[in-house]
UniProtKB/TrEMBL annotation:
Residues 1-37 are annotated as: Disordered. It comes from Caenorhabditis briggsae. SUPFAM superfamilies: RNA-binding domain, RBD. GO terms for molecular function: nucleic acid binding. This is RRM domain-containing protein. Residues 1-11, 20-37 have a biased composition (Polar residues). InterPro entries: RBD_domain_sf.
Amino acid sequence: MRTQTFSSFRTTLPKKTRHVNASPSPTPSVTQKPSSQSGWDYWARVYSEDSQNSAPSRDVRVSDMLSSDTLVRAKLLFLNVPGLPTAHKNIILNLIKKEIREDISIQDVVVVPPGKWFLNFYRPEDALKVFKVFNGFNYRGHTLVVRFCYPDGTYGDETALTELVQCSNNAKGRLFEQREIVQDTLSSECWTIAEYEVLQKFETELVNLLKTHAYLPYHNVLQSMRTLFSNRIPSATSSIFISEALTQWPTGFIRMFNRNVKVVSNTMCLSTSSYYTQRIHDSAMEGGCSVHRNSWEPMVPEDIRSDIQLIQYIHSFLGHFGPQNIDIDAPIRILAQSLRGTWPKSAEELASLLTDISSGVAIVNRVLYLSSNPVHHEKIIDNLATYQDDCTDVYFLPLSSLDGQKLMIVDVEDL
């Protein structure tokens, strides 16, 4: 029997052939993945082309022009201000608009915590209006204190701002604003004619010394001036008065000339120097400025604005220097010269004011004492003992007693 396998019945199929065109087709290009280096090159070309194609804009926005500091013609400093929330600028502007009720152009408002506002004005007359209304203004339980700020960092009162308004209307206005002229920093009321002349000579020599340098170390300047005016070696500049003043109170003596000479940290420079301007700018950015003063001073004299502050200062002053003869001693006259605003400019007027506003200060034979200081009590006795030949004089001294009443001293024996 003949058998066949299943495979013998399987039909052989023709091989499937692929149709080939006569014309050859283009080979498809394979895109390579760019490397990281080629990617950086690509974006570098993109940004470089954009920067080359876009021309720099020369348009100046009006808002940028108005915010420029070169347009500021007056600046006010507000002290003893209350704390404000985040939107402090709008609150201050609304307060001024509400109280002034006039068209006031304010360039900028800068709040420096704690307790300082700086207001920049386009026009000095606007600053004067705000000064008159808000100096002594009661706001949220705080009595505001307003000062006029000179470009060199010193402060002025309403009279100085009024002069600026007057000067801004003539050709001398810009000279006054830029402080390019040397101002008279001394008052002749405090000094004799000879003392006043030697003080002017001292200021001239000090300014000439600082003109040749951007700044000098503070103690080096003091040593140079002491040597120049020393009375040990007779010379044209020798002065016993200057030597004693630099020995007794050098900080206060140099401070008398602070309109032209500035002490910054441990350096000294002119108020018109670029170094001082940069230091003021840096201090404003940091939110504070270091004040050069002695350790016993509660504040600097130019910051005294009220009777309470003056009494506080004079107690520290007399406690440090002791009793002061208002005709002879240099420290009390230096203090009178250093006060700003409407305070007395002579030692005699200052002593008279102190006895009027405070019972803790007494004048005996033109010497100023603290009536509550035991050491001063002994010196009062010594002072009166030199005049014991005239026992009919009646001295009213507000010495402290057990019942808190003033004692009337008729004779030295009563002490």
